Fold:
Amino acid sequence: MSEGRKRPRIKEAIVVEGRYDKNVLAQVVDALILETSGFSIFKDEERLALLRRIGEERGLILLTDSDGAGFVIRNYLKGAIQPHQIKHAYIPDRFGKEKRKRKPGKEGKLGVEGMPPQVLLDALRQGGATFLEEAQKKAPKRLITKADLYFAGLSGTPDAAENRRTLLRRLDLPEHMTANALLETLNILYGYDKLMEWGILRGEKA
Structure:
């Protein structure tokens, strides 16, 4: 972000993996940012209790890395915290190495700390973050259903996994995203009408 530009305020608390993620994100948005300290969250009942409490009060946005480890942490929290308290923000798959590291991570992907500010803002916006300065409400969109994904060959069909991977690459979304996560993200980002317009959804009679 340009120097002197005001950081947008976000209502929800944002959950990241570590302090470097937190430091980078704190320069981009004005929000409560909490760390899982990586896999330590699995054994830290006090930290998990805090996340649950804050989630109840203001909601949480999970913003983990796009590698397999990031999705393990995301899925753990998804199962440990009430679903209605959580929103999911995803950074895209980008390959490279953060400046502070000697070598890339196991999968060669940049984490949250390696993302440019605009990418982080876009990820939060696409994840449904509440930007407090933006009071206007978006027009309701027709929601995509699991049946829509089935008829589009994205779930429950022999080629569904490969079709999802192709779509995830096309939409610049992380490869580890499950069918359920894809459904949620497509509804937040696009809606039924937009994906029909693009020919991604075909409808029951197609």
